[in-house]
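S1.2 Input.
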Amino acid sequence: MAEDVSLIMTTLVTLVPVLSTLGAMTYWLGRKFAGMDLKFREIDRRFEAFERHVGSRILRMAEAFRSYQEFFVEYLAAQGMLKDGEASMLKNEALRLMRLASTNPLTREEWERIKRYLEKDELTLEEALELRELARKATDEYGDRPEAWKLHIYASIMVGRAIRRLREEGRG
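S1.3 Output.
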């Protein structure tokens, strides 16, 4: 029996420091992982803020470009500096955008109005302005597609031409 007690004591004397060390290491590793988790969360938060900042800047730049394009093209069209053939070429390119009609946020009715306006040779100022608004929606969704920008240029030409027509008629 004394041997059994001695064996148990020897085992305990050996196991207690090992178990204590394992417990301390587990606690230490747990705190390290918790610290790393906090740091990763902070990094994630910083990236999200960076993405929001950069995304909003890109959207503002795209809006500035679109606004510049509208003004410039409408001015050229209103001054009669653009030939009808140039608008026709852009209209054909813009029609390619119609292929995207089934996969975007523009409604079926909006796509039909775009198509109807593209089929007409002349638009009233109200129609041209509506086409330009629809083209803006297209550039918002498909700004990576050249056809969207060509639709926008065409719509801006049509606005300029409508303004020129009104001016020539003495109503503008």
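S1.4 Remarks. The radius of gyration is 34 Å.
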